[in-house]
Amino acid sequence: MSESDEQKSKLVNHEYMLYDPPSNPETENALDQLRGIITKDAAYSNLRVHSVRKDYSLELLVQFYNEQMIPHFPLEDERDSLEDWIYCLDPEQVALYDDEAKQGPLMDILLLVCSCNPESEGKESSISPIILAGVAFEYYQKAECGLISYVT
């Protein structure tokens, strides 16, 4: 097998690779420290990092776009459209990609989500997620490099 064939094989094998945030003691310790820095309020103790690509949620994606992206990037030409993100992240849309699109960049958005609402503590109400921060990025398969597009 030539070097070129090996590179092509490597690309094909990683074509649908998803970013999976590591779960190890160092990561858990860092999240615990972050929880402590953000607040000492027990209502915020349920922080998690949510990968929109790995665990697609249109509700969280729209919430992040409306609450974080629009306020931080108010000019429409400074931000990607929500429709583009849905096309890149919705598994039903990704399944329809043609061969050229499959070779394009892979996108993900990592969200720092608190699953508790401090205003509803002690009350019987639905828990609404609070998105504290997010980072949108792309992985360019052919170049084997990433690009951070947005940080909020």
Overall morphology: globular
For the CA atoms, what is the radius of gyration?
Answer: 18 Å
Q: What is the helix tally?
A: 6
Strand residue content: 15-25%
- The structural class is alpha+beta
Q: Give the mean pLDDT.
A: 79
Count of DSSP E strands? 4
Strand order of the biggest β-sheet: 1-2-3-4
Taking the sheet with the most strands, its summary is: 4 strands, antiparallel
Instruction: Give helix % range.
Output: 25-40%
User: How many angstroms does the end-to-end distance come to?
Assistant: 45 Å
| Contiguous uncertain segments of 5+ residues | 7-19
Q: What order do the helices and strands follow?
A: HHEHHHHEEE
What does this structure look like?
It is a single chain. Helix content is 37%, strand content 21%. The chain is of the alpha+beta class. A hairpin with a 4-residue loop joins strand 3 and strand 4.
Structure summary:
The protein is α+β, with helices and mostly antiparallel strands and 152 residues long. 37% of the residues lie in helices and 21% in strands.
What is the element layout, followed by pairings?
Blueprint: H1 3-13, H2 25-38, E1 47-51, H3 58-72, H4 82-89, H5 91-94, H6 99-102, E2 106-114, E3 130-140, E4 145-151
Antiparallel strand pairs: 1-2, 2-3, 3-4
